[in-house]
Amino acid sequence: MSHILVTFENINLRFNMKLKYLIIPFISLTLTHACKQKQEHVIAIDVLLTLPQDVYTQAVELNKSVLQNNPDNFTLDAQHIPHITIMQAYVNESDLPEIEKVLVGLYKTIENETFLVDTLQYNKEKEESFASMGIEKSEALMRLHDQVIKVLEPFSVSNGTQESYVQNEDGTPIDDFTIAYVPKFISHHSYENYNPHISLGVADTSVLDSLETHKFHPTNFKAPTLALYHLGNYGTARKLLWESN
């Protein structure tokens, strides 16, 4: 009887030892995965077309006029470049190397295309309106828009926060509208809803009427580069992450 008892005790001991060696790696793996998830940083990005000097200058000058009327706007400058958004999204920062790889070569598809700034967009029915330089929705531009979404949508995440943006220099928080806008870009602002433009800010409609008559000029242009930027407040292009050669 004692021999049987000892045998059972030995079996139980060996089982517990095996269980111990199974549980410890499992716990370690679980903790490692949890730490990785906790440390993952989400950033807001903008895939965009940069502008040639004449269009860049016109956008900056129009923005200055908007600011004179309403100082509570973003300023277009070297730290907030005027641009044409192709797609915006939240992505994991750790995926940036892969994102850059899938963007390589896309600029070649529009390198020789001529685009058109064709209108000063604003709501003439209101006393105050957001204004932008509208870009013609050419086949080449829409094709690029579709291609960028196709390669980047697999990297898109929805859990962006204040910390996902380049922070404001004055310490004020990122605007709630901006935070809510980015994750809805594909579903609400793409394809048939895509409105290619160069943002200028909000001003009195009377001021915008004058700008349309005296300062805005429709312009044909070629885009110098396709670029990837880290977004700031109001969807401004703040930090260059990648640019086509």
UniProtKB/TrEMBL annotation:
InterPro entries: Cyclic_Pdiesterase. This is 2'-5' RNA ligase family protein. The lineage of its organism: Bacteria, Pseudomonadati, Bacteroidota, Flavobacteriia, Flavobacteriales.
